[in-house]
Amino acid sequence: MALEALRVNRMRSVLTMFGVVIGVLAVVILVAVGTGAKDAVEKEISGLGTNIILVVPGRLTVGAAPTQSKLNLADVAYVRRVVGDPAKVTVSLQSGETVRVGGTEAFVTVVGTDQNLTNIFDRPLDKGRHLSGTDVDTRRRVAVLGSEVADKLFGDLDPIGRQLTISGARFRVVGVYAKIGQTFGVSRDQEVHIPVTTAQRLLGIARVNGIAVGASGPDEIGPLQSRVVAALTDRYPGEKFSAVTQTQLLGTIGSVLGMLTGVLAAIAGISLLVGGVGVSNIMLVSVRERTREIGLRKALGARQRDVLTQFLIEAVLLTTIGGVIGILLGVGGALAIQALTPVPASVTWWSVALAFGVSAAVGVFFGVAPARRAGRLDPVIALRAE
Amino acid sequence: MTAAASDAALEAVDLTRRYQLDGVAVEALRGVSLRIGRGEFVAIIGPSGSGKSTLMHLLGCLDRPTSGRLRVNGVEMSQLSDTQLAELRNKTIGFVFQSFHLLARTTALENVALPLVYRGVGKAERRTRARAALEAVGLGHRMEHRPSQMSGGEQQRVAIARALVGEPKVLLADEPTGNLDTRNGAEVMAILDRLNSDSGVAVVLVTHEPEVAGHARRQIHVRDGLIELDTADRTGTGETEQRDGGGAG
């Protein structure tokens, strides 16, 4: 019966639905893009390795100003003793530097680290070897290049054994990392790893930026994290240290991106709301047009509730059909975005369910007022209407 | 329920109905009392503006009186809620309108079955009963036709079938021949005559045409919101055989 009424005014129904279609489409696509971004970042973080604790000085909160590091190599040795397994602790000292090979130069992130890096992080090699303990102990001027740096500086040549200069100092290439992509939008293939001891001398500083500790399993992360922080706080009373795990990092990033997704969904929701107002408007017109029909139905014994239900079903049908079309287009659009653009988009069942639920709710919400008006019509007046 | 009430299909006592039109009170009915027995065939006659339509709306429980009492099939309507009134209309009263009031784009069968929808009757039974009602008005061959595919006379017969499908006690017909030519009008009146005598449903006809009113065994003349003449009063019973039809002039 309700479907029939919609079919009778096909053009009008289609145009009314259009508003809902666009709203739902926007919700599905924007949530898909938001979720896709979140998934991608989470994948990047997980791609670092597993069971990692990052120790940095100061308080690590989103938006906090970076703290001047007080950690040095002696502290690294101290943390090694605290952790108990020296191989499970590595260090990082980063600086943006220009590297040069002949006439070609590149601006890269120089990372001073040690032989334990690969015990904790996933950093597969493409060629050559990793940094060794001897490299670190003897302050060798050796470097392992990220894949992009290697491509840019050496092109088709095999970089292994070749020379390059970092801030004017000569280094020998001993290895090239396999391509690993970005973390937080920063290409990690643009890094050049050198021994941390060499890096300190090169940069003329004694500190390090951070310490990374690898736990042997998920259960050990928590206790290890508090042990390391407590030990460092003991050593430097009054100073703050933070140890973050991947899980915490994921949580923080996740909540930020979740918020972003929420904002996107809310903006899309506004267009859904506008679609709903359109439905309400058209239902009011429909009630007016069909006043005589309502009067007749009442004369034949339709209760207020029957008439109300009829119009409400019509409104809900209008929005849910629009919702389903919007979902189909939205899913199709998200898949197209995923396939044709670098923007990651991931359609989640909950966004589809939500979009459907919201479109049905919009039908009820915006259909109630016209349906009530229909239900309350005085049959005598309704029958006389033209 | 008293014994007297139980054998009346409709019983009105001192009904009044006042409207507010642009702040001016209009008295459409100024105290109407009447009693229509089961199986009676009554015509309510009056010029336009006499209050006869208002009276019909009240008798059909589409409207509530400003004052006075109305019993429909023994039930005092003033004590019923809107929902109960809808149920009363559905089960006790059948309506036939001047302009048919069929749902366009809906088949004759579905139009006739509509009152049963509001009674919660299942689809199969609705169709069976609607088919029987259509056959009773001689439209067994028009079941799947839509109003636009039928003549005015046929449409009004569909409307009569719809009024009867729920087996009401009272059939209220408001100018049922008003939109029909003489031949179709006569046909519709013949059907109403036959239904009244065969099934015993009380028929209340509202009209301004004396010839149409002549089909009824009793005429009630309404003017200025009051009953001017009730032919039943001449014999003192509600079952007068009088067929003068010329009471108005």
Q: How would you explain this protein's 3D organization?
A:
The complex is a heterodimer of chains A (386) and B (249). In chain A, helix 1 packs across helix 11. Chain A starts with a helix and ends with a helix. Chain A contains 13 helices and twelve strands. By secondary structure, chain A is α+β, with helices and mostly antiparallel strands. Chain A folds into two domains: 2-43 and 251-384, no CATH class; 68-239, no CATH class. In chain A, a hairpin with a 2-residue loop joins strand 6 and strand 7 (169-177). In chain A, the strands form two sheets. Chain A has a six-stranded mixed barrel. A two-stranded antiparallel ribbon of chain A has the order 8-9. Chain A has helices at residues 2-8, 10-47, 73-83, 117-120, 133-137, 147-154, 196-203, 218-235, 246-289, 291-299, 304-340, 349-376, 379-384, and strands at 52-57, 89-101, 104-113, 125-128, 142-145, 163-166, 169-177, 182-183, 186-187, 191-195, 210-214, 241-245. With 249 residues, chain B is of the alpha/beta class. Chain B has a single domain, classed as 3-Layer(aba) Sandwich (Rossmann fold). Chain B contains nine helices and ten strands. In chain B, the strands form two sheets. Chain B has a six-stranded mixed beta sheet, with helices on both faces. At the A-B interface, helix 10, helix 11 and helix 13 of A face helix 3 of B.
Task: Provide tags for this entry.
heterodimer; A: 386 residues; alpha+beta; 2 domains; 6-stranded mixed β-barrel; 58% helix; B: 249 residues; alpha/beta; Rossmann fold; 6-stranded mixed beta sheet; 4-stranded antiparallel beta sheet; 27% strand; globular; disordered N terminus
